[in-house]
Write a sequence for this structure.
């Protein structure tokens, strides 16, 4: 919750919201909200009475008129600020996507040399090399090599996907990360046509369509505004009939107090805030109606569990079998993960530290570390005394044991 408030009160968002609050005073924009448009007309009338007191004969009421003008202007700016602040958070998300796209560096292959360029400079047909830990700069296809790619940011699938040249698993998406090995990628999209570009256009192009409830409420607000406008307009001649003088600023103040100003001012901001709230959960709502419908959802059925995980598989427990002590299991699991840079490998070391186990790295002195590779799906360590430790996919470990011993032990 604190993190959400911090994002909401970001200085850049507040700065743009304040600027937009004044920009939205444009009558062409205010006309979209009839209630606030009536308030703006009243504000302009009071302003004219301040600027030309002699013409209106209000020279003795300057202090009162100034107070009315300031209160009405603040009311307009507050309503505009609430809407601009909600809009600003959506714009900030689009800006964040743009910045991440611009900040991504690519190792472009030019002849036999690699040149570091921005991903925005890549064109269709360019060749780039992407190594372990690097971000794939743009959409393309693998033309050489095999690697494990973390696509959780795009698909939500927690398990890394094997990408290799040829076949059905050669396409890669910009913004995903290579977690092992190295691949050569041919860019297949022009700038502005990538998956991230389409996501940016969706975020920026999402227009707030009014929901049926909002349309009905807006109709009610307009009706109430018209009724109270008639009441205030007829109040002046009635007062003169009884020799009561009601200044125009007083009538305008009365009108603003009677009409549903607060609801009218915050109605659009509430709708935009609802759309922004669902984007915090990586859901893009294209209309207020979609937000309203999501409020009635109690159960969501997904086609895979990966879409509701953290995005990366993580070690959660050490489970010894076959009479092995837990401390012994932890020691060798951590030892075999020292050169495993995948999320799973790093999580093993993190879990060891959380459970307050220590790793004696002197045991690995002089040994040969086996890095995790997509082909083998294993990592491990070959000790100087001849012992070999492996950690990885079950079928890969079994195949390795068969290749070493000729058969699988009965207890496995």
């Amino acid at each position: 919750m604190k993190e959400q408030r911090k994002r909401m009160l970001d200085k850049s968002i507040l700065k743009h919201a304040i600027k937009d609050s004044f920009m939205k005073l444009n009558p062409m924009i205010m006309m979209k909200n009839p209630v606030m448009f009536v308030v703006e007309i009243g504000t302009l009338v009071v302003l004219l009475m301040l600027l030309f007191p002699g013409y209106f004969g209000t020279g003795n009421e300057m202090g009162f008129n100034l107070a009315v003008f300031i209160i009405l202007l603040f009311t307009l700016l507050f309503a505009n600020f609430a809407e601009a602040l909600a809009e600003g958070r959506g714009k900030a998300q689009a800006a964040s996507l743009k910045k991440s796209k611009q900040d991504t560096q690519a190792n472009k292959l030019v002849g036999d040399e690699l040149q570091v360029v921005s991903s925005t400079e890549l064109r269709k047909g360019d060749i780039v090399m992407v190594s372990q830990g690097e971000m794939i700069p743009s959409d393309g296809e693998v033309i050489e090599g095999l690697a494990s790619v973390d696509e959780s940011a795009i698909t939500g699938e927690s398990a890394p996907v094997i990408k290799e040249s040829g076949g059905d698993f050669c396409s890669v998406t910009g913004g995903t990360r290579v977690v092992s090995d190295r691949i050569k990628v041919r860019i297949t999209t022009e700038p502005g046509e990538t998956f991230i570009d389409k996501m940016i256009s969706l975020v920026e192009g999402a227009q707030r369509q009014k929901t049926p409830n909002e349309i009905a409420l807006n109709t009610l607000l307009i009706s109430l505004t018209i009724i109270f406008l008639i009441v205030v307009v007829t109040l002046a001649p009635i007062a003169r009939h009884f020799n009561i003088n009601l200044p125009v600023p007083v009538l305008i103040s009365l009108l603003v107090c009677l009409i549903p100003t607060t609801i009218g001012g915050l109605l659009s901001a509430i709708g935009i805030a609802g759309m922004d709230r669902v984007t915090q959960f990586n859901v893009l709502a294209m209309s207020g109606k979609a937000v309203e419908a999501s409020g009635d959802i109690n159960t969501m059925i997904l086609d895979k569990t990966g879409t509701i995980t953290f995005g990366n598989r993580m070690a959660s427990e050490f489970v010894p079998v076959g009479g092995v002590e837990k401390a012994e299991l932890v020691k060798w699991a951590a030892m075999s993960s020292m050169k495993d840079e995948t999320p799973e490998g790093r999580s093993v070391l993190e879990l060891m530290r959380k459970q307050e186990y220590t790793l004696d790295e002197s045991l690995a002195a002089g040994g040969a570390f086996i890095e995790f590779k997509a082909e083998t799906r294993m990592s491990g360590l070959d000790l100087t005394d001849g012992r070999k430790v492996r950690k990885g996919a079950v079928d890969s470990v079994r195949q390795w044991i068969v290749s070493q011993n000729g058969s699988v032990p009965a207890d496995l």
